[in-house]
Design goal:
Chain lengths: 763, 296
């Protein structure tokens, strides 16, 4: 009988975080530690004409000033190696690092940054994807073709396009030729800042030819590898120690301040702390990319979608990060979860003279899925049919395929999710009880999980408690603090309070794909489950001689080893550890997880990093909104989520993920504009960038659906990203329902809504 | 920077005189400390008046019905004050929308007007109630200035170097009077107003306006009453057409700017709608229903 799994066990890292005892990167103090600051480009594009730090070097407290001249002349990158550590001759975005200073105090290093003489000959920036794609556009990377890349992945690159992927199923043109009607939409999506509480920061030491890096980071092995690339050293010459992390949401997967602090640490021989200011963090953050999605659907006379074109353009910013690996998502999401005819798909990632973009919860899938779901409402309205009924009539069933050939074995869960929402919010009643300028909408999607491998080690302590070592952190989701703790506690019959998570450390843990892509509970959880099973067997093996029986006759529960055939006979776990360890040696177990190949259509996937992704989960969201006719503001009156999670290891933790993800989705839909004008952000602080507040977000009604995964851990699947991915479209469609006009862009600011209301009035 | 910790009002006033323009008066500090941190203001001394609670921290009703608000009265005190809620609810609404709870708990009403931000929430309701600002100096004692003359420009106030604001006074309301403050923000709290509008409506008969006063914020460099709009309504029958006329004149009169919070065009669009909304809110508070008055 499960004792921990399925219970809302409080999280182990909670009290430390709420009482301020948890140690974050900013709290680190080392003897002789210096404080660093970065000189960043004040302009989005230009040639560096003069860079002189002579005067700044003479300023009080300054220990080192480093520039491109002090770093290896290389370009690094997650997959495409296009990124220099410091701008060398030219700057490609506002905020690009040009120099870094280490001084005794932060004020001294900031003063020295201000005193560095910098002259840039400005060039008109290629400020957005339209400019980048225009005929005769200036090339941001003239040497693009020569850049290195990771082996095995093909990046079709040309002009200002860092990566282009196209695929076509047979019969698209024929479908459009015989269509009864064609419905076309273009959707624009803005950028979104992750808005985590803790700005990026690091402390780096250089000693004995090795770098030790302390950072609150989502993916310590990626950081290690990026540092090795930039510094031209072996990855094993970098030790990354993950600190407690004050939120990341995808923004802390790549390098941040670390390479700069590393160069300064080597130059000075002292520990160097570099913490971004909030403005710096916002301007340099790898935010969710802006995107434009164009969809054309060919319909027959019965309203069936018989063909589609799906063209999705994403703003890479000036350099490439993780997004260049996301081309395959276009193939996975262009159909939505609905039957369509053949599809022509194109994904482009486009360079602009703007801050490089990256992952934010639901990486690159958010604009794609939003576009599909908005387009579905548009089609239903054009046809004069109910959008929910239209969806259900075309929703995939079990054993239907995504365009990559990946089979969705259990897509009928979508219908269960609709039915569960119907029980608490009947659609016809929701529609009937609307007041003027209120709107309702419903939408559905599939989501998949990041496939990177994981490992875990479970070390049993002499007092019967256990430590879990892995290469990933708890990013705040509870995936480690609740999920992995629960998995290990359950497997070993321990009190969850006696299972401890060790922060990731690249010197100590084996490789792990990081806290990202809804993978942690599933991937690290499976590895930890296997490690705990290994420990369990070793305990029984150690107990057998002490109990004068066979290990096969023994079982472990409630901190005791019992003889199955002689229930009165038992021995305490701590007794084994004290006595048995002399004979058996200390008890440590290891486990790992790697994805099994998923069958797909190899013809469509040439060169893709991820032609398939594992563990589809299914999601239906419903929203009710009210639009204020005076201001154009939108109030979300009700928000309902039905989410399939495999197995809810910790229902409270999952509810928290749903509430938080929806909050960020509503924020993206309504509040968080991060506008780029002439290559520069207009919103440059949290005073201007409006993250929603608790009062702006309703309490989300969460329905958790369980269809346990066969492969474990305990049936759990990825849960953390999906709550954000439907919210923008569902909010858009509810506003569409309220005002009768589609707006086709995110965020839906009061300005856009009020203008639409005025247009409607004058029409 | 010197920090002068005044124990008595006279000490603060004497310090102001001695410092001769080098000092700033510090109460809640919710604006001043940020401005100092940003280098926008560089006073050589801060005179902290937070201890002068006996003199300056009360909301009191005088015998002739005037409401006196001391210079240390915080926004949260204003929101919670029963006399303010009963007579000048628009002011309570405005104070309740200044920044967040923390700002409201230490930030003062007097500080809000002395900061004279074009987007200050409390200024429009104080303008429509013709608030009077009481100023004191060691040399010349007390003087009163109408708020309208006290604020002279964007972040400019009519105060001498040796003076400080000690209180704000509101006159008793005429009969059949109601007020409203409507604010536009992107979120429900912690917003600097994108635009704000306060109205005070006095009815002379069932459908006849005695007096209508209106003031806006974040619609120009200085919050002002819109007297041309007000004049349209005096003694007139309140009709949908008249409200439309007033709203559109107000929309033409304001001179908003484009900033990161909103475009000038949006502000021009929203202010007439707030005007109509405020008329309706005032009528609702008075329990008056006028047929034919459209909601938007």
């Amino acid at each position: 009988m499960p004792e921990v799994i399925g219970r809302s066990v409080p999280r182990a890292d909670g009290p430390g975080k709420v009482t301020g005892q948890t140690l974050y990167t900013a709290d680190i103090e080392h003897k002789g530690m210096l404080h660093a600051a970065i000189l960043r480009s004040p302009t989005p594009a230009g040639k560096i004409v003069r860079l002189n730090a002579d005067k700044a070097r003479q300023m009080p407290g300054v220990k080192a000033i480093v520039t491109a001249a002090d770093a290896p002349d290389v370009r690094a990158g997650w997959a495409l190696f296009d990124t220099p550590m410091f701008a060398r001759d030219e700057v490609l975005f506002e905020g690009e690092p040009i120099a870094a200073v280490a001084a005794t105090t932060l004020a001294q290093s900031r003063a020295a940054v201000a005193a560095i003489e910098l002259e840039i000959q400005e060039i008109p920036p290629v400020g957005d994807i339209d400019m980048a794609l225009a005929e005769g556009a200036r090339l941001i990377h003239p040497k693009l073709a020569q850049y290195g890349s990771v082996p095995g992945i093909v990046f079709n690159r040309e002009g200002n396009v860092a990566c282009k992927y196209a695929h076509e199923e047979p019969g698209v043109d024929d479908a459009f030729a015989r269509a009864d009607r064609i419905i076309e939409d273009t959707y624009d999506f803005g950028r979104q800042y992750q808005g985590y509480l803790e700005p990026k920061g690091t402390v780096v030491q250089y000693r004995d030819g090795r770098y030790t890096v302390q950072s609150g980071h989502q993916y310590v092995f990626n950081l290690r590898d990026r540092l090795a690339q930039f510094l031209q050293i072996k990855p094993s010459d970098v030790r990354v120690q993950g600190m407690a992390i004050g939120g990341g949401f995808g923004g802390k997967l790549d390098f941040g301040p670390e390479p700069y602090a590393a160069v300064l640490a080597k130059a000075t021989g002292k520990p160097v702390k570099l913490i971004f200011s909030r403005e710096e963090d916002l301007i340099a953050a790898t935010v969710r990319e802006g995107a434009r999605v164009r969809i054309r659907s060919a319909l027959d006379k019965d309203g069936n979608i018989i063909g589609r074109e799906f063209f999705t353009d994403h703003d890479n910013g000036a350099y490439s990060g993780e997004l260049i690996l996301m081309a395959g998502l276009a193939l996975m999401f262009c159909r939505g979860v609905y039957r369509t005819g053949p599809i022509r798909t194109q994904f482009r990632l486009i360079y602009t003279n703007t801050s490089p973009t990256g992952a934010y919860r639901g990486v690159s899938g958010v604009p794609m899925i939003s576009a599909i779901e908005c387009h579905m409402d548009h089609i239903a309205r054009e046809l004069g049919v109910d959008p929910r009924a239209y969806r259900l009539a075309h929703t995939l069933n079990n054993n239907e395929k995504l365009p990559n050939g990946q089979m969705l074995h259990d897509a009928a869960i979508l219908r269960e999710a609709y039915a569960e929402i119907e029980k608490i919010a009947p659609w016809e009643e929701m529609k009937r009880t609307k007041k003027p300028l209120e709107g309702v909408a419903i939408g559905s999607t599939v989501w998949l999980t990041n496939p990177l491998p994981a490992s875990a080690t479970v070390k049993l302590n002499e007092d019967g408690s256990a430590h879990v070592l892995s290469g990933t952190c708890d990013i705040g989701t509870g995936a480690m603090a609740q999920g992995v703790v629960g998995i290990v506690a359950e497997t070993l019959g321990l009190d969850p309070a006696n299972v401890h998570i060790v922060q990731p450390d690249t010197d100590v843990a084996a490789y792990d794909g990081g806290s990202q892509g809804s993978r942690t509970t599933r991937a690290v959880g499976r590895a930890a489950e296997h490690a705990a099973m290994d420990v369990r067997q070793k305990i029984l093996d150690a107990a057998a001689p002490l109990m004068q029986t066979e290990a096969a006759r023994l079982t472990l529960s409630g901190g005791k080893i019992h003889d199955i055939e002689d229930p009165g006979k038992a021995i305490g776990l701590t007794d084994i550890l004290m006595m048995g360890a002399f004979a058996s040696g200390p008890i440590v177990g290891t486990g790992k997880h790697a994805e099994q190949p998923i069958p797909f259509d190899p013809g469509c996937a040439v060169g893709l990093a991820f032609p398939t992704l594992p563990t589809p989960t299914y999601h239906v969201h419903m929203a009710k909104v009210a639009v204020c006719p005076m201001t154009g503001n939108v109030e979300v009156k009700r928000y309902i989520v039905a989410q399939e999670v495999g197995k809810a290891l910790n229902p409270q933790g999952i509810s928290g993920q749903i509430q938080g993800g929806v909050a960020q989705g509503i924020g993206y839909a309504l509040h968080e504009g991060l506008r780029v004008r002439d290559g520069r952000y207009m919103e440059r602080s949290l005073e201007a960038y409006r993250l929603p507040l608790a009062v702006d977000i309703p309490e989300v009604e969460a329905i958790i659906l369980e269809h346990p995964a066969d492969e474990g851990p305990f049936g759990a699947k990825g849960t953390a990203e999906p709550p954000i991915v439907l919210a923008p479209a569902v909010i858009h469609n509810a506003i569409y329902d309220a005002i009768g006009v589609p707006l086709n862009s995110i965020p839906l600011t009061p300005e856009r809504i009020l203008e639409a209301l005025e247009r409607r009035k004058s029409a | 920077m010197d920090f002068i910790y005044a124990q008595k009002l006279e000490e603060a006033l004497n310090a102001l005189r001695t410092q001769a323009g080098r000092a700033k008066v510090l109460a809640g500090g919710t604006d001043l400390m940020i401005q100092i941190a940003r280098g926008e203001k560089q006073p050589q001394a801060l005179i902290f008046i937070g201890q002068l609670k006996d003199d300056l921290a009360a909301v009191s009703l005088s015998q002739d019905g005037h409401l006196n608000i001391g210079a240390l009265v915080t926004h949260r005190q204003i929101c919670a004050d029963r006399q303010v809620q009963a007579s000048y609810p628009a002011l309570a609404t405005a104070s309740a929308s200044v920044g967040g709870w923390q700002t409201q708990s230490v930030g003062t009403l007097a500080g809000n007007i002395c900061n004279a931000s074009p987007a200050a929430d409390t200024i429009p309701p104080l303008l429509v109630h013709e608030a009077v600002v009481t100023i004191q100096s060691a040399a010349r004692g007390l003087r009163d200035v109408s708020l309208e003359y006290f604020i002279t420009g964007r972040r400019q106030i009519a105060i001498e170097n040796d003076e400080m604001v000690v209180g704000i006074t509101l006159a008793p309301l005429p009969a059949d009077t109601a007020d409203a403050y409507l604010k536009v923000g992107r979120r429900k709290a912690m917003e600097v107003a994108i635009a704000g509008l306060a109205m005070r409506l006095t009815m002379a008969g069932p459908e006849i306006v005695g007096e209508l006063r209106v003031a806006t914020c974040a619609t120009g460099p200085v919050s002002r009453r819109a007297r041309e709009v007000e004049a349209l309504f005096s003694g007139q029958k309140l009709t949908d057409e008249l409200v439309t006329q007033g709203a559109s004149l107000l929309g033409r009169m304001i001179q908003p700017i484009d900033d990161t919070r909103a475009s000038a065009q949006y502000r021009k669009l929203v202010i007439p709608k707030l005007f109509r909304g405020a008329v309706l809110e005032c009528l609702a508070k008075l329990g008056i229903a006028i047929s034919g008055l459209e909601k938007s």
